[in-house]
UniProtKB/TrEMBL annotation:
Residues 120-227 form the Bro-N domain. This is Rha family phage regulatory protein. Coiled coil: none annotated. It comes from Azotobacter chroococcum. NCBIfam families: phage_pRha (TIGR02681). SMART domains: Bro-N. It comes from the Bacteria.
């Protein structure tokens, strides 16, 4: 199938029924409004029923407790009609971004119709199943991209936007997958999503995905799935977890430890691991991960934190690096006193260091960085203003003191004794 080259924009514009559209969810997020207010505004628009039917398509998605949550899919005309009343510099920026995105999508559609031979062909997605839900992987050359909405469902997130909004642009893209244009994330983006997710959801997905990708790269067939039992990928993930648990044990203990893991699964579920119901895969992974193995008690290791950044900023470290900042006005009080001048003279900022680590790890922290820089610049301006005011006040006082001490001579006036 021929696909349209993606438009790299900061807003969501995707094909629906052959025409570019966006959603009320994305509009609310970009313009900084509550989604319920955007829904209310759409329903109260003074347009004809025919126009509303053509340009505002009501949709639903699973919300809290799987209750349907309404939203609208808008065409270009619908977006224009809705957002023409949004004012302000920030609103103007997002209007321009949406217009550019719609224009880019329409140019791509026209180019595909006029010269279809020049349009890149998208790779056919690899269709997998995770916990009875679709999980699609889109290969592009040597890289693998993952459909964001499938990853979000696997991690029990609300939608793909919750997954991608914190990722930098190089870790996300939009592609034509089948008849739909979907958001994708690359492997580093997926790793960041797993770091953000609940460990109870992330670890089973990580293990299952490693087993699935190993079979995909090696070309080995997936283990046979029994009717009503775990899929081939889930079986591979469970075996990989057992192998990882026993690998660190002394060699003589490994056979007994593996038997203990498989026996625990059979005792819990009353069947062999291949016959476990797919929807109980997460429970099976959790059970194997919690089993206490005998070799581990003989040689306990320090707990390892996997997938976390080296973030540690105790107050003692800040004090040690900037001793000139802190003083105790009251020796009997533990409270520290820090002046803004002390902060300005500091050579080390834990906030800047933290943001640098997050940026280097792939997080987009530009907003937080510029907010911090703005505070620092405003403090510098305030410091200069106060210094100027103090200098002027000191000069005025010195002038007043000189005038007060200067001898005055009044011609023709004689002094009188009192």
């Amino acid at each position: 199938m021929k696909a349209i080259a993606p438009a790299v924009t900061p807003v969501l514009v995707e094909l629906a029924n052959g025409q570019p559209t966006t959603t009320s969810l994305d509009i609310a997020a970009r313009f900084g409004k509550l989604h319920k207010d955007v829904l209310r505004r759409i329903k109260s628009l003074d347009c004809s029923p025919e126009f509303a039917q053509r340009n505002f398509a009501p949709c639903t998605r699973p919300g809290a407790n799987n209750k349907p949550e309404p939203y609208f899919r808008l065409t270009r005309d619908g977006f224009t009609f809705l957002c023409m009343g949004f004012t302000g510099k920030e609103a103007a920026k997002w209007k321009e971004a949406y217009i550019n995105a719609f224009n880019e999508m329409e140019r791509a559609l026209i180019g595909a119709a006029v010269n279809p031979g020049t349009v890149a062909t998208s790779a056919e997605p690899i269709h997998l199943t995770y916990n009875d839900r679709p999980f699609r992987i889109v290969p592009e050359g040597a890289a693998l991209w993952f459909v964001a909405v499938d990853v979000a469902r696997a991690l029990d997130m609300r939608d793909g936007h919750c997954l991608t909004r914190h990722l930098r642009s190089e870790h996300k893209a939009q592609r034509q997958v089948g008849h739909r244009r979907l958001g994708l994330i690359d492997r580093p983006g997926l790793e960041l999503a797993l770091h953000h997710a609940s460990p109870a959801r992330a670890e089973p997905l990580r293990l299952w995905l490693e087993a699935a990708l190993e079979q995909f790269v090696s070309g080995a067939p997936a283990p046979r799935a029994l009717p009503g039992g775990l899929s081939g990928e889930q079986q591979g993930a469970l075996k990989a977890l057992v192998a990882a648990r026993i690998e660190a044990l002394p060699e003589l203990e490994r056979g007994r430890a593996a038997t203990r893991c498989w026996s625990a699964l059979k005792s819990r579920f009353g069947c062999g691991y291949k016959e476990i119901a797919p929807e109980r895969f997460t429970e099976a992974v959790s059970l194997v991960a919690r089993i206490v193995l005998e070799g581990e008690l003989l040689e306990p290791e320090a707990p390892k934190v996997v997938g976390r950044l080296d973030i540690d900023y105790p107050i003692e470290d800040w004090k040690a690096r900037n001793p000139q900042q802190f003083r105790h006005d009251n020796p009997n009080s533990p409270d520290l006193v820090v002046g803004y001048g002390d902060l300005l003279s500091s050579d080390y900022s834990p906030c800047c260091d933290l943001l640098d680590k997050l940026h280097n790890a792939g997080y987009c922290v530009d907003g937080a960085f510029y907010e911090l820089r703005s505070y620092q610049n405003l403090m510098l301006q305030m410091d200069m203003a106060i210094r100027l005011m103090v200098g002027n006040a000191r000069q005025a006082i010195e002038g007043f003191e000189q005038d007060r001490r200067r001898l005055q001579k009044f011609v023709g006036v004689k002094g009188h004794k009192i």
